[in-house]
Amino acid sequence: MPKKKFVLILLSVVISLQLCKSFFLPVQAEEQKDLTLYAKSAVLMDAESGRVLYEKDGYTHMPNASTTKIMTCILAIENGNLEDTVTVSSYAASMPQVHLGMTKDDTFYLKDLLYSLMLESHNDSAVAIAEHIGGSVEGFADMMNKKAEELGCQDTYFITPNGLDAQDENGVHGTTAADLARIMSYCIKNETFLEITRTASYSFSNIAGTKIYNCNNHNAFLQMMDGALSGKTGFTGNAGYCYVGALKRDDKVFVVALLACGWPNNKTYKWADTKQLMNYGLENYNYEDVFEEKELPELEVENAVPPNGELYQQVCVPLKIDKAELTVLKRSEEQIHTVYDIPKTMEAPVKAGQEVGKVTYYLGERKIGEFPVKADGNVEKLEFPWYVNYLLERFWMQKKLCMNFWD
Fold first, then answer.
1. Cα distance between residue 337 and residue 334, in whole Å
2. pTM for the complete prediction?
3. 398: Cβ–Cβ under 8 A, 6 or more apart, which residues?
4. What is the pLDDT of residue 376?
5. What is the pLDDT of residue 395?
6. Which of 22, 47, 76, 264 is deepest in the core (most CB within 10 A)?
7. How deeply is 181 buried, as exposed, middle or buried, from its count of CB atoms within 10 A (0-12, 13-18, 19+)?
8. In this structure, are residues 155 and 179 in contact, taking their beta carbons and an 8 Å threshold?
9. Do residues 109 and 128 lie in contact, with contact meaning Cβ atoms separated by under 8 Å?
């Protein structure tokens, strides 16, 4: 093979591989300021849109410890009844610290175990809940993974309901900071979830009334910033300190997810990272109405009845976009661009209000809105009867002219 041809083929292969690599990479946050974070993986997300506003290695799959329990909690709320009776299995009772200390065949109300799960992060309560809702830990893990997929998670795999380090033939229990933020963005839309996770302390007993338990909320972020909504801590030897939390202020709702945010003795690192990311969002992102009112060109209509009854003339219909509002959370320097998809011509008939095209709004490469372009008038189709009437009118007009001439 000639050397020149070989070099051309090699370059083509390299370019193709680079294109494929770019195509399959996850969408990253837009150009961002460098922040000094302790966490190995971090994401700041706009909870309303799911847009990643800041990320540091936010799409890498990592163990996520007890932050897993936000998924366990929301599935229990959605698929169970808070007054359900949960019977404890020997497997649930065997879970390691941190645990409630339940015993085999003991019974609890599901609601009480959810407070145990989210306030004290009890591992035995997580398994008891999973077995009650999913029939088994394996069955519940299937529910967790299906829900993650439904929410649009890209690289999440759950094995346990409590987040203890685990691995099987399909992979390692864990998620990404982006996926974890996406799950929390979904959870905080549920009022029961918010009520449980914002409770400072909670007391309950087993159904028999023979044991009394007291739970205290360990989410210190709730007292750190005005507008703190919810959150969940986590720690295992493999995962390190993890955290996912949400904040709402001035109609802005942010979620921060942190993975591998230090190991002992770095327990406070997660609070510093969370506050820094939340403040970054509050200071740099504001809502802006980006809808533009623009005068559109008229659309040529083919085979249309001419408005003044004369043949061989161009017929056009005016276009409009109904006035609307498109509010988006953005930095002041971020640019919005619009793409108008309107045909050059279309066939008659056209009805007023008929959709003939669309305009799409983009923030960077992210689609943020779409509006229909409509016809602002009626245009009838030019058909055979119209030609007949046209010729008859011309005939009578000529006849009248002749009669006037001879008169």
1. 10
2. 0.83
3. none
4. 94
5. 52
6. 76
7. buried
8. yes
9. no
